[in-house]
Design goal:
five-stranded antiparallel β-sheet; 17% helix; 266 residues; alpha+beta; six-stranded antiparallel β-barrel
């Protein structure tokens, strides 16, 4: 879903978004650029993952997980009491265009997370593109180790660096204050991130897997991480560094998995 923030002058929308998001909204230049960012709570946990688009001089568009739109509007409204920025839902779909294994782009907004994710298109798909299912896009995205929306991210509980926000152009360490900045900045400067999101390959199928998520992952009796989401025989998991590229077990299931040792960086 797409949410817009509009004001008579771009300064009101810009001030509102700059104080909310992890990334530096002021660096969005031109009227056809996009930026990946998170909106955190005061404890530094992810509330929403978003892509912000500079639509024109006084309007910004924000891509929001459809299932979280009402929650997003309520959250942002708490910080928009004195601002003149108007927040509204726009009845426009978002499309992704991509070529598996290629960073070749075909117009639209370049996906700010990874070149291999292709482009985003608001309102209408690109001309001449062959339609694919959402599950095919999800498998492409998950194979690159990129989380997206409530199916992959537990709102209010997950940490941004565990979802590779810093590797995906999603945070600025030089901008001013924003919600959740203190813990985020401290984690970055101290370097205390000991686990990261990676794509995993599942060796078997369990029809009850979704009911187990998020599921504990272990190596013998040792906790190795957490399985967040499954898409067929692949998924996304937050794993501790020593257990990357090892066969691991899922609590409550006979399924085994192996996490990638490679984390893509934008």
């Amino acid at each position: 879903a797409v949410v817009s923030t509009q004001s008579t002058g771009k300064i009101e929308s810009l001030k509102l978004l700059q104080g909310l998001f992890t990334n530096d909204i002021t660096s969005l230049s031109g009227t056809h650029s996009a930026m990946y960012t998170h909106l955190l709570n005061v404890r530094g946990r992810i509330m929403f993952d978003n892509i912000v688009y500079r639509h024109n001089n006084d309007t910004y568009l924000i891509e929001v997980d459809t299932s979280l739109v009402s929650k997003f509007l309520k959250f942002v409204s708490m910080y928009n009491i004195r601002s003149k920025a108007k927040i509204a839902i726009r009845d426009e779909p978002v499309y992704a265009s991509f070529i598996p294994g290629s960073s070749l782009l075909d117009g639209g907004y370049v996906d700010p997370r990874l070149p291999l994710l292709g482009c985003r298109h608001i309102g209408a798909p690109p001309e001449g593109a062959s339609p694919v299912s959402l599950s095919e896009y999800d498998r492409h995205r998950v194979s690159l180790g990129v989380s997206e929306g409530s199916h992959d991210i537990t709102s209010g509980k997950d940490f941004p660096f565990e979802h590779n926000l810093d590797f995906l152009n999603g945070v600025s360490f030089t901008k001013g204050c924003y919600i959740g900045q203190e813990l985020t900045a401290r984690t970055h400067h101290v370097g205390e991130t000991r686990k990261r999101l990676v794509p995993v390959k599942l060796t078997d199928h369990d029809e009850n897997m979704d009911s187990l998520l998020p599921a504990r992952i272990s190596k013998g009796s040792r906790a190795a991480g957490k399985l967040l989401s499954v898409y067929g025989d692949i998924g996304l998991a937050v794993l501790r560094f020593p257990y990357l590229d090892q066969e691991l077990s899922i609590k409550g299931s006979n399924v085994k998995l192996v996490g990638s040792k490679t984390i893509l960086v934008a």
